[in-house]
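Protein of interest.
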Amino acid sequence: MLYKLIVFAIIGLYTGYIIPKLSLKIIQYKKKTNSIGSEEVQLFDNRIINIFIILFNGAAWCFTAYTAESLFAAVLICVQISLGIIFAYIDIKIRIIPNELILVLLTLGIIYQSFNYGLEGILGSIICMVFIMIVFTALATFMGLGKVGAGDVKLAGAIGFALGYPSVVTAMGAMAAVLLSYILIGLALRKIRLTTMLPLAPFLVAGYIFALVTFTVNLNIA
């Protein structure tokens, strides 16, 4: 077990190291294909955030290796965690959620659900995806498309598909809690306003990662 934890921690740390570099390459690609101005790519280009990503990803990989039932399940969950961080990074930087990464997430979701629940899991995931997309589309209509974009709706749907029921409920609850806490703290510190445009991917990813980790812990408890 100790050997497994060390290996996962090392791989997680290295993956965390390349996440910002890979994300920036994707950003450069999206800039060329979506006419994104260079002034939009200015957020958190500093070592502190990159170090945080490295440490968080390494810790998440190590913890998942400790709690997951099998090596394959651990790898699947760890890859999804790292992919989630990439989603958050890119959305914060340029407010875009790449469709290419959505397809990767859906592919991982098919593998994840097939491994855990078989065909029944995939059918349930499709229902979750459709339901979540309807909810977020309604939210976007109510709040205005400037607040919730099409990319947010697609990412929420892909997360719903990857997690399935009941994990998607955990993810959405955690996302709402983190988002509400951020807004309340930001308003109290006068760092944001009610009209401030927030990238939703970091909050969706926070719920996604929480649900993935909670799933492995619950399996061990059961």
